[in-house]
Specification:
The structure holds two protein chains of two kinds. By secondary structure, chain A is of the alpha/beta class. Chain A has one domain (2-66, 111-167): 3-Layer(aba) Sandwich (Rossmann fold), CATH 3.40.50. Chain A contains four helices and ten strands, in the order βββββαβααβαβββ. In chain A, the strands form two sheets. Chain A has an eight-stranded mixed β-sheet, sandwiched between helices. A two-stranded antiparallel sheet of chain A has the order 1-4. In chain A, α4 (122-132) links the parallel β7 and β8 (136-141). In chain A, α2 crosses α3. The longest helix of chain A is centred in the middle third of the chain and has 18 residues, at 90-107. By secondary structure, chain B is mainly α. Chain B has one domain (2-120): P-loop containing nucleotide triphosphate hydrolases (Rossmann fold, 3-Layer(aba) Sandwich). Helix content of chain B is 46%, strand content 11%. A three-stranded parallel β-sheet of chain B has the order 1-2-3, sandwiched between helices. Chain B is globular and about 35 Å long. The relative contact order of chain B is 0.19. Classes of the chains: A alpha/beta, B mainly alpha. Chains A and B meet through α1 of A and α4 and α5 of B.
Amino acid sequence: MRLEADTLQIWPGFRLELPAPLEFQTGFRYHLRGLNGSGKSSFLSRVLLPRLIGNVSCYNLYFEQQMSLQLDAVRAYAALCKPRQLLTSEKDVIDFLLLDLFKRLREAPRPVYVLMDESPHTGFIADSLQEQAANSCLIYTSHQEELPDSICMDFELLEPGLGRVLASPA
Amino acid sequence: MLQLLLDKHSKQWLICTARYPLVTTGSLRGEAMLYNLDKQTLEKVCAEFMAYTGKDLSPESELSTLSGGQKVLLMCLLALHSSATHIHFLDLWHSLDANNRARIQSLLQQYCQTREILLEDSPDAP
């Protein structure tokens, strides 16, 4: 997945400048870094996610930040499709989504893109992907930890309403 | 965990979990009603929020325009400016950058003189 240099209108009052192209490849991990409010979550949900949804040539998973609404949605889905499976915690929901992904991968292998926004289970998700989905691209935000071998992308607020993202030199 | 805490001491404690920092999804005014804040106190919250984040909030501001970390910061300010004498914060630090962690630590230090404040991580947090 490649994004050309551009200035993107993310919200009515917020633009994000990409001074250089950004590339996301399977087999790599990308750590989006920056202060609260610098546009990391919006970049995931408003720029990357729309490019992945509906793309049938790959699988994608999105773990949103403060995932209470997502938890309810997955619980409701599980209650309909797997009535005996009780999902009580955030970790249960993550397990459920990962197991579903790995099952689909075994049936029909495709590249995988995983977007993860401040998950308290960052390490677990990364390890699971490494073991069972080698052809995957993990793009994550975290203030708490940086996974080994991550390619970093730095978000900076240039002025109110304008952010910038740059791939960090290796 | 949350249910356990509610059963145990919801009558005495204000419980704030950073995994669900805001209860409402509309304007700040609606969220502030839950904390029973008057107009002057809410203005003070907005001014402090502006000082920390540079973001101009008013009672009519839409909460959906805030980032995850900003929501947690706002939750803390609303709770600390409320009349609650006992506040239990859960998983407070996870979504915050280093600057906001330091700011909130300093706020908690300031407010723990006049009220009891507990900080805890949920048992299912890794």
